[in-house]
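Working notes for the structural subgroup meeting. M.R. asked for a predicted model of this chain before we commit to crystallization trials. I am recording the input and output together here so anyone reviewing the notebook later can reproduce the run.

Input as submitted:
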Amino acid sequence: MSEDASLKPGRPAARRRISRAGIALFLFASSALAQAWLAPKGEASLGVAYQNVYTRDHLFSEGERRYRGSIRVNTVLFGLTYSFTDRLAAGASVPYVAARYVGTNPNNVPGFEVLDDGSYHGTFTDLRLDLRYNLLRDPAMVTPFVSAIIPTRDYPTFGQSAPSSGLEQYLVGVWLGRRLDPILEAGFAQLRYSYAFVEEVLGITHDRSNADLEIGYFLTPSLGISATGSYQKTHGGLDVPLPGTLESTAFQGTPYWDHRDRLAQTNYLNVGGIVSYALTGSLDVFVVYQSTVWGRNFHAVQPGLAFGMNWGFSPRRVIRRFVRKSPTGGPSGG
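Returned structure, recorded in C-alpha cell form:
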C-alpha cells in the first residue's frame, strides 16, 4: 500500500492516526481528546501529556502589555476516550496543575489560602466529560459535541497563580474536519467551535465562545506536522483597567476586584504548531508549541510547550490477554 493510500479518507488507519492526535491538538484549549474524526467502534485511546506555560506580561482591557510578575504553570493531563460505535464516542480528562507566581503584585485575598508566595501549589482541578456524535462524513466530517467541566474539589481560586476558575461549565459545539485531497493528498484540516455556559460570579455572566483551527500534513504515514490557532471571545465579564489609572482605582473599590481573574472579559488569539510521530501502530508521541499574538484581560503565553503520548487500544483485546483460556476452554492456572 502506498503512503497516500494508507491515509485515504475513511480508512481505519487514517481515522486512528488523526483521532489520536486530539490530546496534542487542543491541549492549550482545554479540549483534549476530542476532534472531528472518531476512532473505529470498540477502540479506546489513553493519553498523558505534560504542559509548561510561562507568562510574564499581563494584557489589560485595551491590550496594554505590562510586566506584573512571572507565572509558571506546569500541567499533567490524563485523558481517556472510547468509541461505542463508529459514530458515537465519549471521553474524560482531568489535569493536575502546579503553578507559581514570582513578583511584587500578588493577588492574595484575606481569609483565603495564600497562593502567590513564590512557591509552587498543586492540585487536581476540573474533570471534563465529552460526548461526540459523527453526524456527517461526506463531503466533510461534521461532529457535534457536548461537554461538562466540573471542579473535582473546592480548590483555591484567588491568586495570580490560581490553578483554574473553580466554576462549572457546560459546552455545546461542533467539529468540522476534511481531508485536503486532491490538493494535498496527505493533508487535513479541522475546526472546532464551542459555546460555554459558565457559572456566574456575583451575578455577572461571562459565557464564552472558542474557535480552534488545525491544518496538518502527514510527511510520512508516521510523521505529521500541523499549524494551529486558538481564539476566545468572552460574552460579558469585566474589563481589567490598567493599574495606576482612575478606572483601576475605582475598580479596586468594588466587590468584583477580588474576583477579577474569574470575571475578566478574556479575549485572545494564540498560534502554534504540533509535531507528532507514530512509534507503532498504536502509540503516538507529540510536541506542541503555542504563543499569544493578541489578547485582552489575559496573561500572555510566552511561550507554552507540551509533550506527551497517546496509546490506542482495544479494551476487549486487553482483557483477553489477562484472562487467558486453557486449551480445553477453561481458565488457566492450577
